[in-house]
Amino acid sequence: MSDADPADASPATDRDYAEWLDAFADGGGFALVCPDGHGSLPPRRVCAECGSTDLSREPLDEMGTVETYSVVHVPSPRFADDAPYATAVVDFGPTRLTGIVRDGGADGDAPAVEIGDAVAVDVGERVTDGERLVVFRPAGES
Ligand SMILES: [Zn+2]
Asked: The ChsH2 C-terminal OB-fold domain covers which part of the protein (predicted)?
């Protein structure tokens, strides 16, 4: 998975992704699913697996399962004030989401997640510059 720099994105791509984040923030998160059941996420318009352009919006569960994660202690400049944090790939059934994990605490410890943990997905803001991004919270925490 590429770590696309938003500066490289076209305005249309930014709008699609912003709309997707808006939907999530309103509790209406969705994935784009092709007729073969492959899941994608905006701003993608073509199925990454089979090339289908017949993508329909399917509701995305608010809970997913951590597939892999890594704790970042030395972040890129865009995340300078967010460290330490963990990035995680979370399985949401038809698709996966990549985001950062927060435990809601401000004690400077990296969030504790393990592969297989259930996490809730939310839309948060990057501490460093206020950009919106996908945030995972360990299940059971408010
Ligand atoms: Zn497909």
From this structure: 60-122
Say what percent of the chain tops pLDDT 70.
83
Ligand 1 centroid to residue 96 C-alpha, Å: 14
Residue 78 Cα, ligand 1 centroid: separation in angstroms?
33
Q: Is the Cβ–Cβ distance between 38 and 44 less than 8 Å?
A: no
Asked if residue 86 and residue 39 are part of one domain, the reply reads: no
CA of 57 to the centre of ligand 1 (A): 13
Give the Å distances, CA to CA, from 51 to 38, 46, 48: 10, 5, 6
* pLDDT 10s digits, 38-81: 999 888 899 989 999 999 999 988 899 999 999 888 888 988 88
Domain boundary among 60, 80, 102: 60
